[in-house]
Amino acid sequence: MVAKFDLTDDSVVVVIGTGAGGGVLSNELAQKGVKVVALEAGGRYLPEDYINDEWESFGQLAWTDPRTTSGDWRVAKDFSGLPAWIVKAVGGTTTHWAGASIRFQEHEWKALSTYGPVEGANLLDWPIDGEEMAPWYEKAEAKLGVTRTGDRAGLPGNNNFKVFEKGAKALGYTEVHTGRMAINSADYDDRMACQQTGFCFQGCKWGAKWSAAYTDIPRGEATGNLEVRDHAHVARILHDETGKVTGVEYFDKDGNLQLQKARIVCVAGNSFESPRLLLNSASEMFPNGLANSSDQVGRNYMRHTTGSVYAVFDKPVRMWRGTTMAGIVQDEARHDPERGFVGGYELETLSLGIPFMAAFLNPGGWGRSFTTALDSYENMAGMWIVGEDMPQATNRVTLSDVKDKYGLPVANVNFSDHPNDVAMRNHAYKQGMAMYEAVGATRTFPTPPYPSTHNLGTNRMSEKPEDGVCNKWGQTHDIANLFISDGSQFTTGAAENPTLTIVALAIRQADFISREMAAGTI
Amino acid sequence: MSKIERQGLTRRALLARSVAAGALVVTGAGFLAAPDAAWAMEVSVISEHQMATLLQMARDIYPHDKVADQFYAIAVKGYDAEDKKALVEEGVAALDAAAQAAGHADYVSMGWEEDRVQILQAMEDSGFFQTVRGGLVTGLYNQKDVWPIFGYEGESFSKGGYIERGFDDINWL
Asked: Ranges for the Glucose-methanol-choline oxidoreductase C-terminal domain (chain A) (predicted)?
């Protein structure tokens, strides 16, 4: 039943990447009868392949192809070749994500109008809003089986959540619960309920967490309209003399260069690889890269204002047991400039095992200050900060001098915090530490950001072509049959974990593309 | 008595220290090895003194009083290799020179951890220090046998997760 399309078939839609954006888009198009070739750089792994071991799983799933970094963010010093912790596999980072699925708040679609101009920031309103997105969010929540939406119950709280919840309530926070999670609290959509195993980041071996790898991808393939080619590393998007894209060159699993013709190309390689591909596709007609007449390709890279707070107590917590991120405080997600910054942040439970804790608690740290923290690992609780960061024109993905094994320039990721990001992070550290101190923490650790998992904004959506790369449908302003289908189309980042919004946009984009194809406009 | 013996890092001394940890076996008169042969002080490329210094340095960088020497030895055994020899020679010589400048025979002879740590702090930016420290992050903490010492339970899927094994058993809140 799995389709096989000819390289010369120029009636297909080529989707590059199979994660939350590309994986969902591929399936949604296939369900509507559109023929799709999805090209995925990584391999195929299913729940039986996932590994309950942090480093071994990292070796299996993570994107570890070379990238370079610059800017004053600490990741550039501590993890200079690893700006992101994201996945190279069929299903993309939906294998690794924690499952937190929350909608943008109404005002976050209109950051510039709401916050006003912020010096040094390149803020802009999205060309869409909450009302327009509401029905697509509803479809996305049903697809992912998000708890606390529809009639789906919340997950039970684990030890880490109970400490977090008690601290939050002691501070007077009221919006505290086990999250809206794409992790089943009861059997749903042929996937079983969460078994509180931990290791959400390593791929859910029960399939209780939604991942495109074992939902949208096989369902799309079952229609006979979707062919997924794994180990297909895309090198370049080609175009004709009219400026329309015509196909995609990629290296296949044997390292041979192939050319797949296409009627439409959708780019969903994540916020590093998508702009890198557009820049690497520069031609005589488009010397600055495809869809880059605005010079915005690669700019406005956002990674959320993150950080963690860990704390140790005089008694055991065993935070690693159970769902990693089923716990949230939303009281600080509001926009309230009285706090000294615009936008807001969420606090979410988080835990790492000993191997990753050693690597990430205080990268480069050593000596007894560091080791006594780990000595109390069993008594440790943890949370993650995720807040809106400011888009900045100079935070950007460019082509590096370093080349990958195919000879293609890799992405350089330049990032420096905006003062608003720093003020927000410091506020969140203070609140997070206060939460734990209210429960009797004997020591707290304001932990720096990890390599980024939320990578956003490098091909942003804009009303006007001069302000961004794509329009409200993700269609590039410059090239009608070239689409952006991942988190790189985010105009601003909002405070929420981005996957639900990426999925909602992909469902909506599939609807648009199939409609326009039927009308013969693209 | 050789210098190594005076430093308490002979086979016999190590045996005495490690028998307490219950992990070493005597394989012959005067020889010892870890059960999986992962740790023996039989070094072939670098000297015993250099290995002893690396072991002490590893303990000083990531000191865990509950973690026995054998785990640190496993973490640094890879330095007994031709391609690491120059790095180790230079690095250990620098540690010993700094110790001697402070009035000690060499680095491992320094009695107090805080004195040794001062020497390490002064060379914190060196390639030698950063290589050894960076290697320990995985070399020490990614040993599955070390995890239980910290209470970490590791893999849980094969046991059915924690849904019936205490994911919410906290009782002191």
From this structure: 391-506
In a domain, A8, yes or no: no
Residue A5 lies in a domain: no
Domain that holds residue A405: 13-519
Q: How many domains does chain A have?
A: 1
Q: How far is CA A479 from the centre of its chain?
A: 25
**What integer is the mean pLDDT of A13-42?**
98
Angstrom distance (rounded) from CA A40 to CA A34: 19
Tell whether A2 is covered by a domain: no
Q: What value of ipTM does the predicted structure carry?
A: 0.95
Across the interface, of B137, B165, B172, the residue whose CB is closest to A358 is B137
pLDDT digits (tens, 9 = 90+) for A45-89: 999 999 999 999 999 999 999 999 999 999 999 999 999 999 999
Q: Which of A159, A377, A439 faces B152 most closely, judged by CB atoms?
A: A377
User: Which chain A positions have a beta carbon within 8 Å of B142's beta carbon?
Assistant: 55, 355
Are A212 and A23 in contact by the 8 Å Cβ rule? The answer is yes
* Mean of the per-residue pLDDT values of chain A: 98
User: Which among A157, A197, A368 has the least Cβ separation from residue B162?
Assistant: A197
Dump pLDDT digits (tens) for A383-435: 999 999 999 999 999 999 999 999 999 999 999 999 999 999 999 999 999 99
pTM of the prediction?
0.94
Burial A485-501 (b: 16+ CB within 10 A, else e): bbbbbbbbbbbbbbbbb
A158 to B167: CB separation less than 8 angstroms, yes or no: yes
Assess if residue A374 is contained within a domain. yes
